[in-house]
Each structure stands twice: as C-alpha cells, then as structure tokens.
C-alpha cells in the first residue's frame, strides 16, 4: 500500500463513519459521494461527539491553500467552544504522548498535524457514558490535512509514525498543571492498537493507572 493511500485511511475501533454537510447552503451527501459546498467537511465517528474535519485544499504548482478553522461552520456541526489556547509540539518517530485529560478544567481539543504523521486516539472516560472505555483512532498527517475534534470528558493521546511530527491543537480552556490527569497508554482493558512495538514514553505517562484503577471522583461524568 502506498504512503499516500495509507495516510488517507481512517483507522478506528468499530468504525461507523457517515458524512454530513454543514455548509451554509445545506445539501444531502453520503460517504459514497463526499461532496460539500463548504470548505470544511464534517465526518462523524463511532464515538458520538468525536468528529473529523476535512478541509478543502486548493493546490497548484505554487503550493496550496486551505481553511483550517471556520467558527460558523464548526458551530453548525455542534462545536460551539471558544478556543482560548493554541499548542504546538514536535516529537520524534515512536514518541507516544498520552493518554491525557483534565478534570476540573476540562478541555475540548481540535487537533491537526502540520508536518509528519501521527496516529491520534480519543477514549471516552465519562462515568455513565454508554461508550465508556471505547476509543477511536485516526491518522493525522501533513498529506491528508485531517483534523479531529475531541470533546470534554475524553482522554487523548498520539504516537508519531514519521521521522518527526509537528502536532498543533486548540484547547477550550487553559492548561493547568495541577489538574493534569491521565490513563495508562497500554491499559489492556482498552486494547488500543498503537501500531508501534517500542514507543518512547515519558516517565509521567508510564505512571498513570489503568482506567479501572482510577477513583470515580477522579473521572469526568457523562451528562445527557
């Protein structure tokens, strides 16, 4: 399989993806006809609330242009957060960061990769959620330009699949180091396939507990 086709491939557990239009001029579209009147296409994943955003890329011999964020289109898709902080991390091949969450100041995140390629993972850790412990993963790369929106109440992590990767993400609240939480990246009950046999992981991330070992008052709660 070519690198191009691989980076276009969405990988997720129990994938059930359908595409919906969020254009100002609404039209009916399906996964078989991925056409949108908007410069941002919204793709629903098997975890309700976790969305993929696919920008329309205008390219020619000079390079390309794309809209990476458009508040009114995302609001129509249910992404109503005001993002207050932008972060940029650079990581080497095999680096795995996660699974992270904040409890008292939860963050929704809008993530993309400007250079390189990662496998990005979101896990529903909301107590009482019908999808508690379920996860979804997607390849984000400089070639596919895919973004992932992760709501509050989900743990998040990624592993780098290229020599380096520049990972950019918007957050709906400010980071508070005292509120930093996490779930063990290789929790056997979650069974996440990171597709990386020997990841490079920080000491902090290695000390996190499996999801079942985290006290209930240290986990977010599902709200209908």
- Rg (C-alpha, Å): 17 Å
Task: Specify the structural class.
Answer: mainly beta
By CATH reckoning, the class would read: Mainly Beta
Strand content: 35-45%
Q: List low-pLDDT spans.
A: 1-37
Number of strands: 14
Q: What is the average of the pLDDT values?
A: 86
Spatial ordering of strands, largest sheet? 1-2-3-11-8-13-6
Describe this structure in words.
The protein has 224 residues and is mainly β. Helix content is 7%, strand content 36%. The chain has three helices and 14 strands. The chain has helices at 3-7, 71-76, 203-206; strands at residues 18-20, 40-44, 51-55, 57-60, 63-66, 85-92, 96-102, 109-115, 117-124, 135-141, 147-150, 154-160, 164-171, 180-182. It is globular, with a radius of gyration of 17 Å. The relative contact order is 0.20.
Describe the structure concisely for a colleague.
The chain is mainly β.
Secondary structure elements and their pairing?
Elements: H1 3-7, E1 18-20, E2 40-44, E3 51-55, E4 57-60, E5 63-66, H2 71-76, E6 85-92, E7 96-102, E8 109-115, E9 117-124, E10 135-141, E11 147-150, E12 154-160, E13 164-171, E14 180-182, H3 203-206
Antiparallel strand pairs: 1-2, 2-3, 3-11, 4-5, 6-13, 7-12, 7-14, 8-11, 8-13, 9-10, 9-12
Features:
7-stranded antiparallel β-sheet, 5-stranded antiparallel β-sheet, mainly beta, 14 strands, 224 residues
């Amino acid at each position: 399989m070519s690198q191009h086709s691989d980076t276009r491939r969405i990988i997720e557990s129990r994938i059930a993806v359908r595409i919906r239009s969020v254009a100002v001029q609404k039209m009916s579209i399906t996964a078989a006809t991925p056409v949108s009147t908007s410069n941002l296409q919204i793709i629903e994943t098997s975890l309700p609330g976790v969305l993929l955003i696919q920008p329309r890329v205008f390219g020619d011999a000079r390079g390309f242009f794309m809209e990476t964020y458009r508040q009114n289109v995302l609001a129509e898709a249910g992404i109503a957060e005001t993002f207050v902080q932008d972060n940029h991390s650079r990581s080497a091949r095999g680096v795995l960061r996660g699974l992270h969450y904040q409890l008292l100041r939860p963050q929704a995140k809008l993530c993309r990769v400007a250079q390189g390629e990662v496998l990005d993972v979101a896990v529903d850790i909301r107590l009482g959620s019908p999808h508690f412990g379920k996860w979804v993963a997607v390849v984000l790369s400089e070639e596919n330009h895919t973004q992932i929106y992760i709501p509050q109440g989900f743990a998040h992590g990624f592993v780098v699949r290229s020599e380096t990767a520049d990972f950019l993400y918007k957050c709906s609240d400010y980071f508070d180091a005292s509120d930093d939480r996490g779930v063990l990246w290789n929790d056997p009950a979650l069974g996440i396939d990171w597709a990386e046999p020997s990841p490079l992981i920080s000491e902090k991330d290695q000390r996190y507990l499996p999801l079942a070992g985290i006290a209930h008052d240290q986990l977010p709660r599902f709200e209908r």
